[in-house]
Specification:
heterodimer; A: alpha/beta; 6-stranded mixed β-sheet; 4-stranded antiparallel β-sheet; B: 434 residues; mainly alpha; MetI-like fold; 3-stranded antiparallel β-sheet; 16 helices; 3 strands; disordered N terminus; transport (chain B)
């Protein structure tokens, strides 16, 4: 059905990075996420797919407590990273977000220079002792974001002046600059053209060497191309979670099958 | 046959709908034309009103920008000057003597006779001579050339505002006085240079000596106090309300009250200031510090509302980006949101300040319409402000104040246009497209 390249989707021997148990999310009276249990592995790209409004982005935003900024949003249940409860009272969301980087749907570089965009995170976390160290961090992050060669001669020009695909890779570089362990991506390619999408997808596959990558996507082809694990959400429920190859070739749940064959969604 | 019918009706209907659109099109276009016409008419009306306003101000105000002067050769008589105390001397006699040179027929030693001639000059003329001598005592015994202002009535005569063809009994100057003036004019000592007094002097009972310096300095101090208080307070309040305050009934009530406060008539703030600052705190009357505090009360809601709007306009994607890399709420606000909102905040602040500069009623209530003949040296001295000075002059009976009132309004408008221009410049310069 989908051209699933072999090899890329092979699941390596991995350990569990994020565990979610009985997670419920409420927006006011709306029950947006219903009893989600999932284990996300490190050095793996995990894709969340599902129709619009199924709660995949909401669940993603629980992992770095981005939902805290929404007044009416309430999260119940248990989400652990490396066994530590991230909703524990003692956990500061600021610290958590340094560990769990995020890339958003629309490229959102700060209206500052390319250098300052990447350097901002390390600066506020005090990761560099001097300018030389900061320069190193910025270069490393930009290289990881696969954008170094394109911007190395104009680090001081504004980040907003780059093309859409470059902006998104700059945002990825910004997210990895704080040395996170988990990288969350909320439909990172939905605002990009096919060529930029291909570049970002290639980048995502490289990033898996160092991080646990969780990506929300509307495109099933994209999920099939970049992920090793796929979770299918429907109406706030996690319907099925398995190896990507399995989900796309031999889904167990009839709803999953209906979705990937295009009958719902 | 039956098969064809629905198709026919379909095509008929589609044709008739095009027809319907075409029919209604003329009516719709006409309506749009009428609306546009009304819009243009409204703009034309507004513009013509503006032209009439500014035109009438300029036509009444422009004579105030020149002032008739008389050039005199004055012998600084050592006998008339008290060398111990230079400020005490019969400077008016010296002026009268020098003026007498042009009127050989008049007995200048007689007070009554000389009065006829010296009334051409402003009563400030002798002070001008005194100030020259005080500044340079070596002038005593010398003959110096000095330009002194003519008195208001003769200034009006020179500018043609007192008409010679008016019957003598209806004129403020009799024929003899006009003849005296003409004698001086014929001698070539009358001139009408730029009226620098308008800017360099404070208020006076005599129009030819009155200026706006006191009002300008008073307005400056009041605005400075207003800015220093309302800018940080307003931004602080707006940041708290917009970014940190929990959204509940209390914050709703505060928001409604701030919006209401912006609509409270300014005279009410004046009464409040009178009761609180003057009567309760016992602060000095007529002082720019109190004026500034009162204006700050009025400007605060404007700044808070403008700042909140500017903060709200910063897109959420920027906040998310900053939160996403682990910035704290406070870092998000101060590193990203506030700098991006700054142009909007500054624009709102400048407009609030311009409003405060033109505010009259609250200043009247705290006594900033006092008659004060020297510019304040600080915010605690008594002073007037530009709008209250206009108010005082508009109330004065002397003819010279008519044009000076208009001139003062023009000065005030210049400042307001200047401030608004800065606001517009900031808005366009730093406007950002997301």
């Amino acid at each position: 059905m989908y051209d699933v390249p072999h090899g890329r989707n092979e699941v390596a021997v991995t350990d569990v990075k994020i565990t979610a148990r009985n997670v419920q999310v409420y927006y006011g009276d709306t029950h947006a996420i219903k009893d989600v249990n999932v284990e996300i592995e490190s050095n793996t790209v995990t894709a969340f797919i599902g129709p619009s409004g199924c709660g995949k982005s909401t669940f993603l935003r629980c992992i770095n407590r981005m939902n805290d900024t929404i007044d009416i949003c309430r999260v119940e249940g248990d989400i652990r990273i490396d066994g530590d409860d991230i909703y524990d009272k003692r956990v500061d969301p600021v610290q958590l977000r340094a560990k769990v980087g995020m890339v958003f749907q629309k490229p959102n570089p700060f209206p500052k220079s390319i250098y300052d965009n990447v350097a901002y995170g390390p600066k506020i976390h005090g990761m560099a002792r001097n300018k030389a160290e900061l320069d190193d961090i910025v270069e490393r992050a930009l290289r990881r974001g696969a954008i170094w060669d394109e911007v190395k001669d104009r680090l001081q020009s504004p980040g907003t002046g780059l093309s859409g695909g470059q902006q998104q890779r700059l945002c990825i570089a910004r997210a990895v600059a704080t040395e996170p362990e988990v990288l969350l991506m909320d439909e990172p390619c939905s605002a990009l053209d096919p060529i930029a999408t291909a570049q970002v997808e290639e980048l995502i596959d490289e990033l898996r060497q160092n991080y646990a990558v969780v990506i929300v996507t509307h495109s099933m082809q994209q999920a099939a191309r970049v992920s090793q694990k796929t979770a299918f959400f429907h109406l706030g429920n996690l319907v099925e979670y398995d190896d990507t190859t399995k989900i796309f070739t031999n889904p167990e749940d009839s709803r999953t099958e209906s979705y990937i064959t295009g009958r719902i969604g | 046959m039956t098969d064809i019918t629905p198709e026919q009706t379909g095509s008929n209907r589609s044709r008739s709908s095009t027809e319907l659109v075409r029919q209604s099109l003329a009516r719709r276009n006409r309506k749009q034309k009428v609306l546009q016409g009304f819009g243009i008419a409204a703009i034309f009306f507004a513009l013509s009103m503006l032209v009439i306003l500014v035109g009438s101000l300029i036509s009444t105000g422009y004579p105030a920008f020149t002032q008739t002067h008389v050039e005199l050769e004055v012998f600084v008589d050592p006998e008339e000057v008290d060398t111990e105390n230079l400020s005490r001397g019969n400077y008016d006699d010296m002026i009268a003597a020098s003026l007498g040179a042009y009127f050989p027929d008049v007995d200048m030693s007689s007070r009554i006779a000389s009065r006829e001639v010296t009334q051409v000059l402003s009563s400030g003329a002798q002070l001008k001579l005194r100030d020259r001598v005080l500044a340079d005592p070596s002038l005593i015994g010398e003959t110096i050339t000095i330009k002194v202002p003519a008195s208001d009535n003769f200034d009006q005569l020179n500018k043609g505002l007192i008409k010679r063809d008016t019957p003598e009994e209806n004129r403020r100057l009799n024929d003899a006085a006009i003849a005296n003036f003409d004698t001086l004019d014929a001698a070539g000592v009358i001139s009408a240079p730029l009226n620098t007094t308008l800017i360099t002097s404070a208020d006076s009972r005599f129009p030819e000596l009155a200026g706006l310096k006191g009002a300008l300095v008073g307005s400056f101090w009041a605005l400075l106090v207003c800015f220093v208080i309302s800018f940080p307070l307003g931004i602080g309040a707006a940041i708290y309300l917009e970014e940190f305050a929990p959204k509940n009934r209390l914050s709703d009530i505060i928001e409604i009250n701030i919006n209401n406060l912006a609509a409270v008539p300014s005279v009410v703030f004046g009464l409040l200031a009178l009761a609180v600052f003057l009567n309760w705190f016992g602060m000095p009357r007529s002082a720019p510090i109190v004026g500034g505090l009162t204006l700050a009360l009025m400007t605060l809601p404007t700044i808070i509302i403008a700042t909140r709007a500017a903060l709200k306009a910063v897109p959420p994607s920027i906040r998310e980006a900053a939160l996403g890399v682990g910035a704290s709420k406070q870092q998000v606000v101060f590193h990203h949101v506030l700098p991006l909102a700054m142009p909007g905040i500054l624009t709102g602040t400048i407009i609030g300040m311009a409003q405060a500069l033109g505010e009259t009623a609250p200043l009247l209530l705290i006594g900033m319409n006092a008659f004060i003949t020297s510019a304040p040296s600080g915010p605690f001295d008594s002073a007037t402000a530009l709008p209250t000075q206009i108010f005082i002059w508009a109330d004065s009976p002397e003819r010279g104040f008519v044009s000076r009132t208009s001139a003062a309004i023009l000065v005030l408008l210049t400042f307001l246009i200047f401030m608004n221009a800065i606001a517009i410049y900031l808005r366009s310069r730093f406007e950002r497209k997301w």
